[in-house]
Task: structure prediction
Amino acid sequence: MSSQFSYELDERQIRLMMQDAELDYNEAMWHKFDEMSVTQARTSSNIGNYIPTLNFGISRSIIVPVIFIVLIGGLSAMLFSFVDFKKKEAMDKEIPYMAKIEPSKQPKVSSKPIITTKSVTTVSIAAAKPVVDTTAITDTANVLVEPVIKKVEAVKIAETGIDKLSSQVVNPSSEPKKETVIVPQKKKNKIKTEVLPTINATAPNLNEGASEPELDLK
Amino acid sequence: MSQAELISACLKNDKTAKKQFFETYFSKLSYISLRYSKNAAQSEPIVLQGFAHVLSIIGHFKSQNTLSFDEFVTKEFISFVVKYIKNIRNEYYVASTIKAVEYKEKTYDLFLDSKFIDLKNVDQAVLLKSIQELVPSQRLVFNLHVIDNYSLSEGSELLDTSEQSVKSNLEKARFNLQKTIEKNLKLSNDEQPV
Result:
């Protein structure tokens, strides 16, 4: 609308003119109306018209805020589903270290218990002590209850060779390990140990055979 | 037949009472329908359905009411017409924003005789035609506020829009109506024999 526009219509006169205006009566219109009312009466007698129709006048001012609320709520719910507050609390708590104990294999219980003794000559003689695998000796009923100790190997040194070994320098790498396996067949108490002959492990003298030059003493 | 008897007879679906009611209010209501609609063809079904609507709710009228029976009938008819035209959605919403106008070459000749247009005294037929040429939203607002004395808030309530948009449409309607009246008056003057 231009700024130069000046409204010149007389609204009061327009109102009086239009309010008092009337159309001539038309008989044809009455007949049309009568026919329409008859057809409406026929259609109204249908069963479907007895069912109440629900017309909800939902305006734009209601729909738009509802849509926005649903959108915002849905988005926030989606975001909350990604963020887990419980995990953070669990992280704060200190978890005590628990060493896992592997369940040991249950030994096969046999009527003939086997005792294995291993004799290994090592440098540390004080640590050497004979250990007998107790699991093999125990009864079948106690097998499940008692823990199995297999990590410590039995080391036995023959009593006869102890004196000689102590006086000599032993090179562990040069000597092979020897095992003694005793299998008692009938009696548990009697354990026979095979006495192995000791080997004189003497360190090779590198200067052996070489003649030392004599000093000239003047 | 008195007014109360007419109402009770119409409620009983009496044909003669209905015809009397139709004869009494047809002239007035059909003209109202004519100025609210875009042409006579659109006005005809509005009149028929409007009468049916008023007769269906005639029982709601109470004699203790501040409105007279004539005012009650007119008001109910106008509210029906407004809803009817507003429900022609493709026409109401599209035509409110876009007005297809044929391109015309503008030729200005200063030496042409320009006749004085008296906008104070406009012919009724020209005025009706000009109102009908307005877009539906503007036409409804102009009819409601200027002719039928509805306030802006009442109009906005009836049209289910904001008061601001009613006011805006009213301003546009005033501008367009004046321009349309000028155009139609020029056309009618040109057609008149010299």
